[in-house]
């Protein structure tokens, strides 16, 4: 009878009963609170309670020494950068020299690593066991590099990999050729870059990763992509450029033939073929990029979302678009899931109900239901810095 009048013992019995009925073997957090990341001064994580979820299959992802590319994308604000950065740290700690690249014009990779990565060059990340480098693509710096290269070559072209970005966005806006010089003119477009420049520069970086010797050391390259619209433009750009360059080359051939006939009457020399050669090289490289994006052995796109109806709906459309582009997609990360709790306050109960409805949408969605679902819990601190990213990687990438 004394037990009935002891609030402390009653609370203990209630928690014990809830543990007996709970499918989760881990200790339950306090009532109505998210899982707690306990960090000492050494920033080592002590414990966390997480929901039961499917494993990510990280052993499969880390197997082999051949280079692999992982692209993480989805709706804005769902945690793409944290997931990409934590995957990079996990790969590096498992022996893979890794490069993580942000293609989002509004970068947050520096914030995630708590380190300045804004220079547009490779920056070593301190902390992981194997080499880990990060890069935030800087469109303004790339434009300056393009402009300098153009000036060094007389204002008519660029060299090495820089020609890819310039030629790409010139083709993107249908820029015309100069019949008198027989080459592309670049200067005016550099001052007023058209829409699509960010994607064109990202494509040029992909080609550098494939061809440049300085990137040959990396066995894993991870792309923290922009929100859905930018990413779809990036993935569709190789096809668009391939078709556009083909049309431009045909037009140029017709115009060059007419110009040659006119100039031959006056005894002028034939125009050089530098621009045509560069366009053909660009077209071949775009085909390589397209094949890389669609290579099921070396490339995978991972969709990141949160358990809301709006985010799940956009993820479904993204998955459909990726499959139309023949981009391999096998995994879906559902981030920020409320952890198990013995009981809920009104706010948590409503939030959990909304999340359950969103998770049910995934199970019934024809685009998402076949993907391997990875559930990541909501935590009560900001994931920032390598120790916190290592902690997140242990939760998500199992």
TrEMBL record:
One of its GO terms (cellular component) is GET complex. One of its GO terms (biological process) is tail-anchored membrane protein insertion into ER membrane. Pfam families: ArsA_ATPase. Residues 68-395 form the ArsA/GET3 Anion-transporting ATPase-like domain. Residues 272-299 form a coiled coil. It comes from the Eukaryota. GO terms for molecular function: ATP binding; ATP hydrolysis activity. It catalyses: ATP + H2O = ADP + phosphate + H(+). Keywords: ATP-binding, Coiled coil, Hydrolase, Nucleotide-binding, Transit peptide. CDD domains: ArsA. NCBIfam families: GET3_arsA_TRC40. Belongs to the arsA ATPase family. This is ATPase ARSA1. It comes from Cocos nucifera (Coconut palm).
């Amino acid at each position: 009878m004394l037990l009935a009048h002891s609030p402390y013992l009653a609370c203990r019995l209630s928690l014990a009963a809830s543990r007996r009925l709970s499918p989760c073997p881990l200790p339950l957090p306090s009532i109505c609170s998210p899982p707690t990341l306990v960090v000492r001064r050494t920033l080592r994580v002590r414990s966390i309670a997480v929901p039961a979820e499917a494993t990510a299959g990280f052993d499969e992802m880390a197997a082999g020494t051949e280079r692999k590319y992982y692209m993480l994308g989805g709706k804005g604000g769902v945690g793409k950068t944290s997931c990409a950065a934590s995957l990079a740290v996990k790969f590096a700690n498992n022996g893979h020299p890794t490069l993580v690249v942000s293609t989002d014009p509004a970068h947050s990779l520096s914030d995630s690593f708590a380190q300045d990565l804004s220079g547009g060059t490779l920056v070593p990340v301190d902390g992981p066991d194997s080499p880990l480098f990060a890069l935030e693509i800087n469109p303004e710096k790339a434009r300056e590099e393009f402009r300098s290269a153009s000036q060094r070559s007389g204002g008519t072209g660029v060299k090495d990999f820089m020609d890819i970005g310039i030629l790409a966005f010139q083709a993107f806006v249908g820029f015309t050729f100069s019949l008198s010089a027989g080459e592309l003119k670049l200067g005016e477009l550099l001052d007023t870059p058209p829409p699509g420049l960010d994607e064109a520069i990202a494509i040029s970086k992909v080609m550098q990763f494939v061809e440049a010797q300085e990137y040959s050391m990396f066995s894993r390259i991870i792309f923290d992509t922009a929100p859905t619209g930018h990413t779809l433009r990036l993935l569709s750009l190789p096809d668009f450029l391939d078709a556009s360059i083909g049309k431009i080359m045909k037009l140029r051939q017709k115009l060059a033939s007419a110009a040659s006939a006119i100039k031959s009457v006056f005894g002028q020399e034939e125009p050089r073929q530098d621009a045509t050669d560069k366009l053909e090289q660009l077209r071949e490289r775009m085909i390589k990029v397209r094949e890389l994006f669609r290579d099921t052995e070396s490339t995978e796109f991972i969709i990141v979302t949160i358990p809301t109806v709006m985010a799940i709906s956009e993820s479904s459309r993204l998955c459909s678009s990726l499959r139309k582009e023949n981009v391999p997609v096998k995994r879906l990360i559902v981030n920020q899931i409320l952890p198990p709790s013995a009981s809920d306050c009104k706010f948590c109960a409503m939030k959990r109900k909304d999340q359950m409805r969103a998770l049910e949408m995934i199970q019934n969605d024809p685009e998402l239901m076949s993907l391997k679902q990875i559930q990541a819990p909501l935590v009560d601190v900001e994931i920032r810095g390598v120790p916190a990213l290592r902690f997140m990687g242990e939760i998500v990438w199992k």
